[in-house]
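Protein in question filed below.

…
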Amino acid sequence: MSSASRKSFQQLNRRLNSVQNSDRRSRAGSSARQLAVSHDDAYTYALRVAYLHYLLQPKTKRKQWVAAPKPPPRTHTSNIGDLVKEFVPGNSTSVKLPHGFRGPLEKRIEQVIMGAERLPGYNDAAVKKTFAQAYTAFTEQTFRKGIDKERKIEPLILIFYSAATKACSLGHERGDDSWKLLVDRHVALFVRLLTNILRDQGHERDKPELMSRLKTLENKLLTNDQNLFIDTGQNVGNTIEVVVPLSYDVKDMPMVQAVARIFGLSHSDVQSHIDAQRQNWTEEAALKDLKSYQHRLNSNMNGALASQDFDVEEAYQEWKKAEAHFLSLMMMEILTARPELARRSTAVNAFSDKALPASPSSAYSEDKAYSDLGRALSNSDRSSMHGIDHALNLGSISLDDTSSIRTVDEANYTFIPPDPREFLKIIAKYALEFDAMHGDSAEQSSLFSKQSMDLLTELCVRWRIPQFTRLVVFLEVAARRYTDTMFTIIDLDNAFDLVKIPAEEVKKPPNVYLYGESITTIDRSKWTLTDYAMYKQTLLTLNDALLRDLYDTLMHCYEPKPPSAGPAVHVLQNHIFNDPSFSRKEEDAQEYARILESGLQEQAALVYRSFLDTEVPESHQDWNFSHVVQLGKSVVKLCERIQKRYKRNPEIMGVNPLTVLVETMFPNFEDDAHDLIRRIVQVSRDRGEELPLQDGFDLYKELIEIRRIHKSSLPNRPFTFDVEELLVDFVWRWIQNAEARAEEFVEEAIKQDQFQVRSHGPGHISLDSERHSHSVIDMFQLFHQTSDQIFQLGWDNDVHHARFMTALSKIFANSIARYCEIVDQRFVKEMDTPRPNEKEAAAVAQTTQGRFMQYAKDAWNTKEKVEPFQFYPESLVKLNNVEWAMQELDKLEKTMNVDACADILEKVDGPRKQIKRPAKYVFTIKIVEAEEIKACDPNGTSDPYVVLVDEYQKRLHKTRIVMRSLNPRWDESVDVTVSGPLNIVATIWDYDTFGDHDFVGRTSLKLDPIHFSDYLPREFWLDLDTQGRILLRISMEGERDDIQFYFGKAFRHLKRTERDMVRKITDKLTRHINASLSYEALRNLLGRNLASQVNSFFKRSSTLPQITDTEIENALQSLFTYFNENFATMKETLTDATMVAVMTRLWKEVLMAIEALLVPPLSEKPSNQRPLNQRELDVVYKWLQLLFEFFNAKDEDGEVLGVTAEVLRSPKYHELASLNFFYFDSTENLIRTSERMAAATAQRQQQQLQGQLSSNRLSAPASLGHGGAHAGPAFASMGTIRRGKSIMMSRNLGTMRRAKEEKRKEAQADPSDDMILRILRMRPEAAGYLKERHRQKERMAAAAAAAMIVKQSVSQGWNSAGGGFGRGGIPRR
C-alpha cells in the first residue's frame, strides 16, 4: 500500500473508532455478570443434555411373533335374489347400466377366462371356470337383446349367481355346503368387475347411486369372506410390537456422538464419563431441575430470568406464561418416559429434609398429583402420542409444589449450567469451529451442521433459553469469528440468513419460546436487555470491521483481478444499515465517502502513471500514434472493465469508482494525448515524413471512445480538445488518395471485363440481376467501400462529414463520367463495326460501278425480307451496366444522405457561397435538329450526323446518324465545362457505309458565361456555310462544389449514356421503320396496281377500290416481323428495364416517322410537302393504332408484356391524335384558331410574369446576372422556352421521375398551336401569317427577357441584406 493510501486508511480507522466509542444508549444495565466458561465445563454440560436427550427419546419397538386366534365359522348367503333386490333395485333410471355396457363386459370376462385380467384374485382356476360358465349364458342372443334394451343389472348378477352355483357345486356330495361360501366370493368378484368397468368408462359422476349400491352389495357378499385372494385355509399367526430396552451405549446415542466430535473426545472417553454419572444424570434429576426452575421462575429468584431482565413488563409476563406451558410439556415428556416417577412420591418424601409450602394455586399435593398421573399412565391404552391419553389434564397436578426438592433456594441444577447464555455461546463457538473444519460441500451454505444444530436446539430447550437469545448468541459467535479473520463475508452473510430466515416447520416444535420466529419477526420489545445490548454491540462491531474491509478491497478495484466488494456491500446494506437497532449518522457516511473517494483518486492516479510509463517511451523522438493509441486503449479497457464490474451497482457507499476513475484519469490523459499528438505531428513535419493514415484512423477511434466515456461520466465537463479538428487532415489525405486511384481502378476494371452475362452454365436462363458484368459491380463496390470507410469512422462533426461526402461524390461523379466515356466509345465502335455481309459489300464498293450496284441492291432488298441486325451480346451488356449503375447510384445517394449533407453545408456556407462567384460553368448544348441541308447521296438525301469541337479542335460530342433525311432531328445533349469564353464549331457530315464521309456544312458559336448570366436556356438557329441551318439549345449552370450537384452530374452522365446507347441501337432499326412508314409504302398500298386505276378511270367509277383492314395490317407485317426478330435477339441479353427503354425509344421513332408523313417541321417558311388525302390519313392513323397495340403487347389475359399504355400515350402521341381535328380544316379557320391559342398563351404568360414581379418569394424564377439585357438571337419559331432540366434536377431517380412527370403535365396543360403552324406550312396562302406569327413570338421573347431583368433587379435589392440562391441552387452574384 502506498504512503498516501496508508494515511487514508489510518484516518479511516480513527474515524471508525470515534464512531464506535461515541455515547450510545444501552439496555444492558441489568444484565448479569458474565462467567468464564472452561472447555471442560462446556463439555460436561453439553454431554449431560445430550445424554438426557437419549433417555427421553421415544423408545424403539421391535416385532414379535404371536399365534393368530382361530377364525369364527363362516356362513353363506341364503337368498341372492332378495339381496339383489334390496341393494340394487332396477326401477330407478339412476341405477341402470349405461348404453353399450355389454360389449366392454364381455371383453373383460374374456380376459378373465384367458388369464389376462389385471385385477388381483381373478387368476384362480375355480374363478375362471365360474366366469366361463357365465360367459356362455351372457352371449346368448336373447339375453343380449334383453340386456341392451332394459339395461338392468339384476339379470346379470342373478345369471352369474346361477352359473357360479352350477360351477362350484360340481364334485361335491349332497349335504356338503362348503362350496356355497365360494359362490359368494365369486359373485363379489363379479360385482367388483362391474364397478371397475363403470369406473374405467368415467361413470363415477353420472352414476353415483349405482356405484354406491354395487359397493354395498360387494361388502355384504364379503361379510363372511374378507379376502378375495386365494384362501389356503392355513392359520399362520401374527406379529406384535414390543419396546426395546435402552442399551446405554454411546453408539446408540447420536447426539452424544456429536458432543464427542465437537469437543474432540473418543467414544470410549465419553462412555466412561456417562457410566460414571449414570446415577446422577437421570430423568428424576431432570424433573427436579424443572421443578426447581419453575419455583425460581414463580418466586423471581436467581436461576431464571426475572422481571428486571426485560425492558417491558408485558414482555416478561408473556414469556413467563409461555414458560409455564413449556414446563408442563417437558414434565409430561419425562413422566411419559418414566411413568414410575409418579409413584415414587413416598420415597422422595422420606429423603426430603425440608418442605416448602405449596403454591396457593395448587389444589393437590405433589404426592397426590404424582399418584393421579401414575394411575393415568398405567390405565392408558397407548393410543395417544408417547402413551398418554388425550384426556389427561396436568391441571390437577401441582407443578408449583416444591416439597420434594432439596436446597431449592440455591440455583444448583443437574443439567442447567450457572450461566446458560455464556455456556451456549462457548458450545456454539466450538460447534462452529468443528463444522468449519469438517463440513462437507453440500452443507457449505449452512452455518452449522444438522447434528450441531440439533444439539444447540436441545441445549436451548433444557436450559430454557428463548429464541431471540439463541439467535443473538449465534450472531455473536459468527461476528467474533469474522473479526478474528476466521470467517469470510460469505460465512457472515450465511450467519445473518440463519438468524433472519425462520426455521422449517416441524410436526413437534421444540419447547423454546418463539421458536418458529426469526430475529426480524420477533418484536425487539420482547427481548431481554442483555440480548438487545449484545445485538446492538454486535452490529456496531460488524459495521466497523466491514467498512475497513470494504475500504481495503476497493483500494484494489482498479487492478486486473481485484477482490469483490459485493459481499461486504450486501451485508452492510441488507443486514446492518437496514436493521432498526442500528443507527447510522449522516456525517459518518459522508466522512467515509470522502475518505474512500480520496483513496480511489490516489489509486487511479497511480494506475494512470503506470500506464504512461509502460506505453510511452521516454524520448519524444520515438513517439508515434501507436503509443497514444495503446495508452488510450489501456485507459478505455480499464474504464470498460470498471463499468462492467459495477454495472448493477455503480455507487458503493456513495462513491462511484468509474466516476472517480474518469475524473482522475481522463483529464490527465486528454492533456497528455493532445500534447503527444501535436509533438508527433511536428516531428513528422520536421523530418518531411507523412504519418500513416491507418495510425491516424486508429487514434481517432480510440479518442472518440474515450470522449464517449467522458461525456457519459462527466456531462458537465467539456473534452479538453477538438478531436476532429486535430485529425481532419488524415481524412482529407485519405480522400485525395482515393481520388488518385479511382480513375485508374475504373479503367482497369473495364480492361478486365469481358462484358458477358454472368451465367451458371449452358441452359441456364439468367435473371435480370445477373445481366450486368463485373466492371460496374467492381466500380460500385469501390464506391461503397470508400464511403463505408468514412461511415465506420463515426466522424462526430457534421460539417466535416458533409464535406467528406461532397468530396467523395465528386470522385464518384468523375469515375462514372470516365466509365461512361470509355464504355460508350467501345459501344459505338462495336455498333459501327461492319457485320460479315457489310464487309462483303465494302469490298465490292471499292469502285464507282460497284457502289452504284450496291445502291441498286439496297433498293431491291427493301422489297424483300430484311435480315435483323446482329447485335453483339457485349454491346447489350454495356447498356445493362449503365441501367444498373443508375439504380445503384440512387441507393448510394440515399445511403450517403445527400440532402441532409447539402442542408448542413448550406447553413454553414450560405453567406460565403452568395458572395463567391463560381470558378467554372457548365454549358449544356442540345443539338436539336437541322433543316434543308445539302443532299450528298445519289438518292437525293443524306445520312447526316454532327461533330461538335471546341476552338482547340478537341472533340466534344458526336451525334448519331439519321438515315436518309434532309431535315434530321437528333435531340442529343452534351455538357461542356468552361472557366471563360469558348468557341465551339458544329460540323455536319454525311455518313457513307463505303468510302469517306461527305462534308455537309459547318457553323460556330461563342459560349460566354457573361451572355448567359441569367441562367435561362437559349435557342440558336445557326446558318450553315453551305445551305440549311441547325438548331442548338444552350443553357448554363455554375460549376458547384455541392454534393447534390455532383450526384446530378453523375446521373446525367449515366442517363445520357443510356440514351445514346439506346439511340444507337434504335438507329440500326430506324432505316426499316422509315422505309415501312414512308410515302412510297403508302403509295404502294393505295395504288395497288396500274390496271385497277385504269379500269376505274374508263368505267367512270366515282369511288376508288377500298382498302381492307387486313391489307393495311399486312403492309406492316414485314416491320412487325423485323421488330420481333430483333426483340428476340435483344431479349436474350437485355434486362426488362433496358428492353422497355429500347422499345420506348423505338416508339418515339415510329411517332416521328408518322409525324413526318403528316406535317413538315416547324418553320416560318412555306413547305413543299404535299398534305395527305382522307384515304391516306385514315391509313396512317390505322397504322398508328396497330403499332400502339404491337408495342403495348397484351396477352390473352390482358396482361401488358411490352410498354405500358401510359408511356405510349406520350405528348407526341397526343399531338398526333389532335392533328386529325385540324388537318382538313380551312386555312381561315386554322389561322383564327392559331390566333386564339396564341392570345391565350400570351395572356397566361403575362399573368405569370406579373405574379412573379409582385410575389415576395425569392426562389422562382431564377435570378439574372448583370448581362441580362443580352437575349441572344431570336427564339426562332419554337415559342416560349421553358427552363431546361438542370443538373440539380437529376441528382437521383426520384427527382428525375418528378421532372419527367412535371414536363408531361405541362405539355398537357399548356396547349400550343405548333401543329396548326406546321399544317399551315403546307398551305401557300398562309405564308404571310407564318412570318407575322414569327415576329410576334420574337416580341414575346423580348418582353419576357425584359421582365426577367426587372425581377432580377428587385430580387438583388431584396437579397442585399442576406444570402439567397437562384433556381437549382445557383448562387446569386
